[in-house]
Design a protein that fits this description.
mainly beta, seven-stranded mixed beta sheet, two-stranded parallel ribbon, 13% helix, signal, Lipoprotein
Length: 139
């Protein structure tokens, strides 16, 4: 009886390992940080108001699509804006760079100047170019 039990366990183990194979031949999707080419900030904010701010980003090829805008807040008056894309390499990617625009909805909660940081590509040494824009708040 023990031999049947161990044979069953061995057979079940082989079945489970073969059915959970990670050798998927489908295209792989990865997340990428996109270059933000322009953000159309107002000259100033009014305390308590809600703003719709256009953010223009670049898609580096035909296999990359816009996914979302992420906004980090490392300090009360600092916002780091990141455009994220998904890239699925299906083989026939065009190399044309295209632009798209999404709207960042931002509410002014504090009565101090906001500093916005965003990625604008890499320099000749491969180092990231981070642009900072300050927008004052009026009451």
């Amino acid at each position: 009886m023990k031999n049947y039990f161990y044979s069953f366990l061995a057979l079940a183990g082989v079945f489970l390992m073969s059915s959970c194979s990670s050798n998927d031949d489908g295209p792989e999707t990865t997340f990428e940080q996109l270059v933000i080419s322009e953000i159309d900030f107002p000259e100033s904010f009014n305390l308590g108001e809600l703003y719709e701010i256009p953010v223009t980003y670049q898609l580096p090829d035909g296999c990359t699509e816009f996914y979302q805008l992420n906004v980090g807040s490392p300090a009360q008056d600092v916002r780091e804006i990141v455009a994220i894309g998904t890239r699925t390499d299906t083989g026939g990617c065009t190399q044309a760079i295209t632009e798209g625009t999404e709207t960042l909805v931002f509410q002014v909660l504090f009565d101090q100047t906001y500093t916005f940081r965003f990625y604008q590509g890499d320099d000749n040494n491969g180092d990231p170019i981070i642009t900072e824009v300050e927008v004052p708040v009026t009451e």
